[in-house]
Amino acid sequence: MQRPPLLARINWYWTFQLAGWGALALFNSVYGGSSQLRIVVTIACWGSLGGLLLSHLWHGVLHRRGWAANGLRWKRILPSLALLAAIQTASVTAAFHVMYPPDVLRGLAWLPGALLFWFGVFLTWTVFYFTTLSLRRAAHLEAETLRLQLHGREAELRALQAQVNPHFFFNSLNSVRALIFEDREAAAHMIDQLAGLMRHALQSGQHATVPLSAELDAVRAYLAIEQIRFEERLRVSFAIEISAPGLEHVRVPPMALQTLAENAVKYGVEASAEGADIRIAARRASPADGVAMLQIDVANTGALRAPGNSTCVGLRNARQRLQLACGERASLELREQSGWVHATIHLPEQA
Q1: Whole-number Å distance between alpha carbons of 349 and 209
Q2: How far apart are alpha carbons 313 and 242 in whole angstroms?
Q3: Which of 187, 212, 299, 334 is a good FRET partner for 260, with 20 to 30 A between their CA atoms?
């Protein structure tokens, strides 16, 4: 089991307790003067030890009574601080009487100043303690908010993935249905290919991202299925940048490339009597703000056209899943250029 970081293992309560009361002992030793230094230091240490004990007991009272959870309540706090100051003053006065001759402390002129000093010390301790608690609660709240946001993003991603897989399966079944009436053996072969492809879709659906190589293999299998149906009307080429080492290991959202390939078949090949060329390219793009970027382009010959009765669930979910899985830098652009329709993904590299 991995040990937590050093800062997480430190007991910050006792660290600040010892540091604070130790600093007060040093201050009182210096302020007490240089005559009879040993006695001055002894009384200063006695006062700090007493303050340490009283503040720790005060810490327990705050927690047992629930005052620490409700913020500063001055009507409760101030009388308690006055009592702490009185006890501490009595303790230090007793130390004075033990260490010094009885006639050193004459009268009571010193008493208000001593009470006010120790009241200020415990007031400072209390304000510092409540401030620390507030900061810690704010940090915990921020961490919890981030955790809930992360779970929300994961849930949304799973929901979108659950929509994409039936959408893809519906399109593929339409292809099988059309082929059954033409070539039963080819239809049986297509069903086998489809079973393997659905296995990939279900397995990859358990992860936010998959390697680019796995996604490309799924796309090749899908296009092989569609080539059984469209034959010469579907012409496919791949242009994967071979000079970019490690490109195949870059992580991409599952079925995102598959969705673009489906749209290229539907709006390019299926919509044209002559069919269409489909070209799939992947390369490293120019870094954006120092972050390495991957560019994947799925292009088909033809022109952009209105979606008609299509729900466009594939492209819409592809955009959303890109944002959820890869962050705000990820994007999906659809454009027409020189007789080709390009669906281009830009996303930061994740290995």
Answers
A1: 11
A2: 33
A3: 187
Cβ atoms of residues 285 and 294 within 8 Å: yes
pLDDT band at 179 (very low <50, low <70, confident <90, very high): confident
Q: What is the pLDDT of residues 87-104, one digit of tens each?
A: 999 998 888 878 776 666
Report yes or no: 345 and 337 within 8 Å, Cβ to Cβ: no
List the one residue out of 149, 143, 198 whose CA is nearest residue 169. 198
Least Cα distance to 300 among 259, 269, 327, 258 occurs for 269
The enclosing H or E element of 288 equals strand 276-288
Q: Which of 349, 344, 350 is nearest to 332 (CA)?
A: 344
Distance of alpha carbon 348 from alpha carbon 167, whole angstroms: 27
- In this predicted model, what pLDDT tens digit does every residue of 28-40 receive, in sequence order? 888 766 567 788 8
Instruction: Please give the structure tokens belonging to residue 104.
Output: 């050193």
Average pLDDT over residues 144-155: 68
Q: Tell me which amino acid residue 64 is.
A: R
Q: Which of 10, 39, 30 is nearest to 104 (CA)?
A: 39
- CA distances (Å), origin 132, targets 13, 74, 126, 127, 155: 10, 18, 10, 9, 34
Distances (CA, A) of 222 to 101, 218, 219, 265, 300: 99, 6, 5, 10, 16
Residue type for 232, please?
E
Q: How far apart, in whole angstroms, are the C-alpha atoms of residue 280 and residue 341? A: 12
All structural domains of the chain: 6-106 (no CATH), 151-348 (3.30.565.10)
The contacts of residue 244 (CB under 8 Å, 6+ apart) are: 283, 284
H-helix segments, the chain: 6-9, 12-31, 37-64, 74-99, 110-180, 184-204, 212-230, 256-264, 313-326
Greatest pairwise CA separation for the chain in angstroms = 118
Which residue blocks in 32-109 are alpha helix, DSSP H?
37-64, 74-99
* Whole-angstrom distance, CA of residue 232 vs CA of residue 238: 17
